[in-house]
Structure formats: structure tokens, C-alpha cells
Amino acid sequence: MTLKGERDMNSPLLSVSNVRKSFDGIFALREVNFKIFEGECIALVGENGAGKSTLMKILSGVWPVGKYDGEVHFNGKKLSLKSPVEGRKSGISIIHQELCLFPKLTVAENLFLTESYPYDGTPSNKLFERVRWNAIYERAQTLMNDLGFDVEARAIVEDLSVAKRQLVEIARAFHHKARLLILDEPTSALSQIEVEHLFQVIKRMKRKMTFIYISHKLDEVFELADRIIILRDGQTVKSLNKAETNAAEVIREMVGRSIKLTERTEKVIEGEPVISVKNLSHQLENNGKQILSEISFEVKPGEIFGISGLMGSGRSELLRSILGVQAGIRSGTISFQGKNVDWQSLSDAMADKVAFVPEDRKKEGLFLEHGIDFNLTISTLKENVIQGGILDLSSEKERVVRLIQQLGVKCSDPKSAVKVLSGGNQQKVLLGKVVALSPKVLMLDEPTRGVDVGAKEEIYEIIRQLAAQGMAVILVSSELPELLALSDRILVLREGKAMGELVNYKLTQEKIMSLAAGENNGSCS
After folding, report:
1. Backbone phi and psi for residue 356, each to the nearest 5 degrees, phi listed first
2. What is the pTM of this model?
3. Residue 296, exposed/middle/buried by CB under 10 A (0-12, 13-18, 19+)?
4. Average of pLDDT values for 14-40?
5. Which of 22, 79, 172, 206 could disulfide-link 72, Cβ–Cβ 3.0 to 4.6 Å?
């Protein structure tokens, strides 16, 4: 099977033919077919649950031969991997969204951890031989210099930025003689400047490697990819040449329907502010560093108030400071429904009907091992308790069913563990968990991070509906299109300071970025 857009070449580096993988009779992959040629950068896109992760596990050896049907050929030979180590030896490496480095070790130690002298990229069984420290530091620095990476071989990994840690992973893959490098959502924690540098690295490295680039961000896909391979419901549905397609077609093929983001219209929010912040500053106790300085804003019922800024600008810290969960000393005034408040914990804020959706849903937001029903009702158990301290299971079930329908959570059973859901459905459950509290103010920190484009628009609609019901929404996002699609006003931060507040009518990304970069400031309408 040759998909539209496939190159007519005889010797692909990677060929995937009729690959299928099922779990308990449910297909995660069915009839996956595509080819990749030497020196290409291929974007692999699809909604959460489309099969991208399962496919990558097959290509990297996590799912060994015999655990799936179909054939994979790499570099002219049938690929019969039994482990990720064999995948690495064959010339396939993967850099996961969660980087796999030892933070307490140096860059050089991470590069040569599984090797012994002469440190040539070959795994060794002689790891207890004497370490030749001068050799590993010299070879590591030479490798970094040859690749054009500004990374010191003796640096401790935990002291590096996320961007530089990714460069270490790329250098390690190159040192291990990888011919195909898979990058899984590599920019999720990077600033715009760091993203641009990573793109330059990938473009330069295409002379030495072939790339599979997995991302939900279509602007990145169109920046980097030669071709775009689309998965939907475990199948390859299209292989498109970048020059012959556009974002609308890619989205349509990903979700099986057209999606049109709602355009902003001029809007005036009436009423008194439900929350008001005046001259809020925040200082860390351990080193006295000022992370927020003299920030003021207010949000009215039914308003979506966006907060923008580059990484390190203080976006998330602002929400956490208001809620009383940011380490350090807060000063300034916070007023809620006309009264000054001094929240010292999330429990204090929740008692006043203020809810928070954290950036990291897996670590801070959800009980992954527990059921959907448990997660949706854990914060409102008291409301389902009847006389004698007995839980009204019927009432609880009705609430769960209502929330699942309201939020459009796709699941086979409300008692299924949250961990088996796609990222988009996990995020809906997290939203449902806080929406069940009927908050007056909802604070959202990166509410669609790691969520595919179809689920993203569904979450946007949920947020709009909540605001339409009179809820005040404060939205932190690193994605400017998201802020422009949702926000009524946008506060732009830079290095912990407010650079300006913008009314979202005929507003452009360029205007927001100019404030975030410190080119000008002020309040604009």
C-alpha cells in the first residue's frame, strides 16, 4: 500500500507494513503502513489514542517481535527487536517527553554510562573496569563541540536547562550511531527561544540522522517536517507532503471532521470583579529572589482572563502565589467578592469556591490508579453523605454520569482507572473534578498541554460554557493561539513583572510577543 505523498524510491530506511497490535482484543494499531527515507524529518501526528505511542514502542523494541503482527524493515533488513537495547544497537533511538538522564551525574557520565574504554558507543560488559576520567571528559567535550552544542562535558545534568538536557540526549543518540531518532513532544517544556534553537539543531542534524517528530503543535510540524504521516484510530490515513497540504487538511484527517476555531468578537464584561489582585509581589525565602513584582489585575464573573509570557516570566508562579501554595513570602492585596483574603493553602481557596487545575495532571491533579468515578467525586464526597455518615451511592452515581456526559469523557466504564484514558480525556476528568465544586473562580494552568487538537477544541468549548454560566476563569497558557481563542483580556508578564494588559479584539500574536520580549509596555484596548 502506497499512501498519497509517499516518495517513489526503492530503498527506504524504514518500512512499516500491515502492523497491528491489540490489548485484550482491542486494537491499538491496525493496518499501519508507511515508509521513511534517509535524511527525512517525518512528523507523526494524530489524536491521543490514535496509536502513536504504541507504534513508537514497537519501533524502539519496547514491544518485542512476536507481540505484534506485521513487519518492520530497517536499513534493508527485517527488524526483529527483543528489547530497547537491541533497538539502540540496530540504529534506532528515542527521546521521550520525560527525559531519561541521571540528574546527579555529569554530561560525560550520562553519555558513556553503559560503556568502557575506548568509549566508542558500544555497550560493554566490562563496566567495573577503571574509569578513564580524562578520556570520557575529553571525548564528551569533543562530541559536543563537533555537533555545535554549547554544553560543558563536566556540567551536572540537573543544573542544565531542559533544552540543554535534550541536546545531551541527542548527542548520546548520535554517539550510539543512531540512524533514526524519534523525538516525542520535545518542545513541551521549552521557551520559544529554546524551541527555535532545537529546530536549528534538527535541521542541521538531518545531514547525519533521519527523524520522526511527534507533536500536537502543527506550527512546529509545518516548520520541520518534509512529510506528515497521520494516524487515526490506529490506522495510517494519509502521508502528506508538507508543501501540498495545510493545517486545516491535517486536522480534518486527524479527527475525521473539520474543526473551525471560534473567532473573537468585541465583548464587554459587566459587573463587579469577583477577584482583584493589587501590587502582588513574591520573594523566595532561601535566596531572596523576587519572582513576582507589583502585579495588579481583576477578573469579573463570566470573564476569561488570560496570562501570557515566555518561560520564566512567572505565569504559573502568579497563580500559585495567589492560592498560597508558592514557596516564599507573598505581599500585596487579594480581594475575593469584595473582601480581602489571605489564602495560605489550596484548601483555604477551595473553601471560598476557588478551584485550580494544575499544569501536571498526573502528579498533582489526578489519582491515576483509581476510577473515573472516584476522581470525579472525591472533592465533593460530603455532598453525597446522608444521615449517619453513609455515602449515598445512588446520588454519587448520578453525579458521575452527569459529569461524564457534560464533559464528553470517552470511556467504556466509569469505574475504569483514569490512567487508561487518553490525555484529552484525563484532562476532562480533571476539569470535572474541580467543576463539581461549582467554583466562583477557576484557575487553569496549561489546561491543554499534551492534548491533541480534537480534544483541545472540546476543552475550549467546556471552558467557554463555564464562563457563560458566570464562572470567572483565569487561564495560563504558553500557546498564543489558545489564549487568543479563549481570552477576553490578556495580561503579559516578563521576568515577574506585568508588561501590559491587552483587550482581545483584533489582537495578534506579534503584539503579545512584543510585550513578552520587553519591546514596549502599557495597557492596550
Report:
1. -135, 130
2. 0.59
3. middle
4. 88
5. 79
